[in-house]
Amino acid sequence: PPAQVWDPWVAQTDDEPVYMAAFDLGTTSLAGFLVSRAGTVARAGMRNPQTQYGADVISRIEHVLAGGADAIIGTHSHQVQQIQYDPEAGTLVAYSLGDFISNGVYAESAYSIILDVEITKDSRSGEARISGYSYTPIFTVTEENKPVRVVRIAEAMRAYEEKYMEAVEKSTYEAMEKALKRIPERITAEV
Questions:
Q1: pLDDT at 130 over 90
Q2: Spatial strand order in the sheet of 83-86
Q3: 118 three-class SS
């Protein structure tokens, strides 16, 4: 059966007010909206206070790393992006892991990764540091008349190849093949 979608606009009674909040956290500004069935009830906005650390995201990341951060993990762009790991410094910057679950409208947003970060503590100094990372490619499967599901790409492809009952369709399998090629390119910034 298809997934059931909760409709936020359906109240228990006509007298019951329904409100939703929406936020836009942009690079240079922040905005918030309170919305009802009748439309926008209230709105507010301001300059993003992070702009004091740089006009762009890269400048802000450099500022945070210089301040002593060991890891920065983002999901902003809806697509998997570069991962920078410095084993000497023990730092990791993952610019974007992609969308964990996606509506799959954009080809590059149907896949993402689950990031595993290895942290090791030095027994003498007691200092903990990032000592490695790995990732698992995942895919949002949106096939007609089936529930939306998030799957590990390697396992889903193996199920297709071995003709399991709940295997993905051929077109999804082909999209997963492309994703498995594309993810390492994006992580190493070979785009």
A1: yes
A2: 71-73, 91-94, 83-86
A3: strand
